[in-house]
Amino acid sequence: MPAFNSSKYIATTIESVLAQTFNDFELLIIDDGSTDNTSEIVNHYCKLDTRITLFCQKNQGVSYARNQGLQIAKGEYIAFLDSDDQWLPNKLEVHMQHFAKSSNLGISFGRIEFMSFNGKPTGKLSNSQLFQITPKDLYYENLIVTPSNTVVRRTVIDSVGNFDSNLSGTEDAELFLRVAYKGWKVEGINKALVRYRTNPAGVSSNLYRMEEDWKKFNAKVETYAPELVNKHYQRARAFFLRYLARRTLRNQISSHMGVNFMNRALKTDWKIIYKEPRRTILTMLAVYIKNVISNIIVSTNYRIPI
């Protein structure tokens, strides 16, 4: 669990781990240079439960923190959890059952239940593809959504490497793709196992920065899967721009920004309408209607000075 100034949420997150029905785990919390009382809260839990260990480092970013945890971890399986998300009680137990069924399963993941910034469950679940996942599918879209949704075999990390610390926002998507490209099975479970907090103050809210990071992601993928990039770049970029358009809706960001992303997605590869008609058309309608309503409100509120 990487943590940076996480005092507002980390107690609830730790409690969600301690509530697991599968209890043979170690919880490693990497404090990435917090300036609040995150470490104080974690130390309280360390005294209550010997399975919890705190490591502190100077601020180096979430990928460095996760990689530090990977170096320390002793388990046969690795699970990730961001300090503002929550696991549902059967998360680890269900994943262990999943791994027992397939020796080639490299990454196991489930459905995501979205919760509000204030921690209230929304009842909305992710609807990502779960089965027969190929590297192309993971190039088009981060089906797993967040590292908090994964459990990975330790042997997989040993064979493909850690998170790329040069990426900031797509480092998880790149690792998941790299795992699939190396021949490991990536497969989902049709159950909600994680609650994912929509945090407007997080990295994901800076959408233009995410777009720049996707370019770095693409350059990294091209180093080991050039044929994948050569064949699918336009569609992958269009899907990512459509994803950013959807994020403007989820994070209640400017409708003009949503229109910008959606227009550029269609300009990059308009055939995504045929590839995924429901998601593309619904995103288009939501983004464009929101923009029209926003313009009407601005127009009706405008007053000519006398």
TrEMBL record:
Domain Glycosyltransferase 2-like: 1-159
Pfam families on file: Glycos_transf_2
InterPro entries the UniProt entry points to: Glyco_trans_2-like, Nucleotide-diphossugar_trans
MF (Gene Ontology): hexosyltransferase activity
Name of the molecule in the record: Glycosyltransferase 2-like domain-containing protein
Organism: Dulcicalothrix desertica PCC 7102
